[in-house]
Write a structure and sequence with these properties.
Blueprint: H1 2-6, H2 14-44, E1 50-55, H3 59-70, E2 76-83, E3 99-102, H4 106-112, E4 117-120, H5 130-139, E5 143-146, H6 150-154, E6 158-163, E7 166-171, H7 180-213, E8 219-225, E9 231-237, H8 262-270, H9 277-282, E10 287-289, H10 296-302, E11 318-320, H11 322-325, H12 334-346, H13 350-360
Parallel strand pairs: 1-2, 1-4, 2-3, 4-5, 10-11
Antiparallel strand pairs: 6-7, 8-9
Length: 368
Amino acid sequence: MSASFLYRNFEFSRGVFGITFTVLPIILGLEKIMVRTLQVSLRRHGLLLRNVVIVGCGENAWKYFEVISSKLSLGFRPVGFLSVKEEGINEKFPYIKNILGTTHEIARIIRKYAVDEVMIALPSSIHSRVLDIITQCEREIVKFNVMPDMFEIMISKVTIQEIEGMPFVTLKEPKLLTWWYFIKRIFDVIGAVSGLVVFAPFLIIIAICIKLDSKGPVLYLQKRVGIDGKKFFMFKFRTMHIDAEQHTGPVWANKEDDRRTRIGTFLRKTNLDELPQLFNVLRSDMSLVGPRPERPFFVNKFKHNIPHYMSRHRVKSGITGWAQVNGLRGNTSLEERVKYDLFYIENWSFMLDIKILLMTFFSHKNAY
């Protein structure tokens, strides 16, 4: 187009410009899909993989090992682990046979196994060793990554401010705690109204099915803890028999839970039981996306046992969240759930919200 402007012997019509700007994004998108599909296919056949050594023998280390071992499409081939003497090896560590040596031998192991990347997954207590490991990686011209612990995730975004010549390090406010909150609120209202209009026929059908399936009300109101620790009543379609917790007290649902009704099992599996929470969004109790709210009984229990648990309540709770679409719901690791929630708060964007909303329709892991 630039050349045609300078070369005056011929001209493009406005239609050509319009067609170009319309077709070009589509072609580029298809090209990217084709390249990624080819890349994933080659990786699954053992090609284009990068050899990775994991430093550490803790829970984060072997979880990372399992993830990249089961998903070759990510592009990594785990070679093994390097232990640190100060760290010690837990007897329950499931991959003792994959330990190649200690960090003192890292240079030899990098050369022996043609290592492309080193993943450092060490607990905070021995992070003083990390600098030495990084130095050795640099000497061998090998890429390295450091897996942060929960506290490091919290302080990953800091800013320096000065008061009368004295420097202070302070946490940078996440977008959700700034004026972006009002933009997200507009998005929530538009989304909730649109959702109620689109799903209105399903809401009526589901309500009829619940009423015919078992005795009790269609909606179930449950007290939850939201932003700033404030309590509110969350709406849900009733999926269990009335007085389900009369003998058990507050407990999470499990895979073989006989308290569920027939229609309730289906609703929980498909996440349709959460649709009435669109009214909570309109009431400003909740957002479309955010950390899932929990009952006061569990909040009072977890806030003393799970580090940074209450940081989830800095923003509005959501109908769906980053932890939930990644399978962290129900009786799963609370520490992992908090990590995912804090990641969402620190890295919020509209595209992330849209991604989570789309993933919700296809995420059924641990939904029961």
